[in-house]
Amino acid sequence: MEKSGYPPEVPSSQPPPYYPAAYPTQPAAAPQPQVYVHQQQPMIQVVQMANLSSESTRMTCPHCRAEISTKVTYQTSCMTHLAAAVLCLLGCWPCVCIPYCTDACMDAEHECPNCNKFLGHYRR
After folding, report:
1. Which of 36, 51, 52, 57 has the smallest number of Cβ neighbours within 10 A?
2. Is residue 123 exposed (0-12), middle (13-18) or buried (19+ Cβ within 10 Å)?
3. What is the mean pLDDT of residues 4-21?
4. How many Å from the N-terminal Cα to the C-terminal Cα in the chain?
5. In sequence order, what are the residues at sequence separation of 6 or more whose Cβ sits closer than 8 angstroms to the Cβ of residue 73?
6. What whole-number distance in Å separates Cα of residue 76 and Cα of residue 85?
């Protein structure tokens, strides 16, 4: 007589039948996602700058690639202070402010009017 839920009895001359376990002893490893790392190569760009002067210069902006005429702002420099000192030493102290009001004694800084990026200096 068989008991319910048990395997049938096997004659002793044969090995017992193999019954796989309902649950594996170790859980199967989840497959790991493959990660691809894309390394971006550095971009080397050679830009030939236009010869900048004390006045506005026509050129192609290396940042926005627009054909522009540079926006120039003037900054005081060593040349400005030196010219004022020379005027003071020569006795022309009322004229000391002239180098600070004249663009010819100052450095020119060029910017792109389109993207407002700095393009370069013209030093005196």
Report:
1. 36
2. middle
3. 62
4. 114
5. 108, 109, 111
6. 14
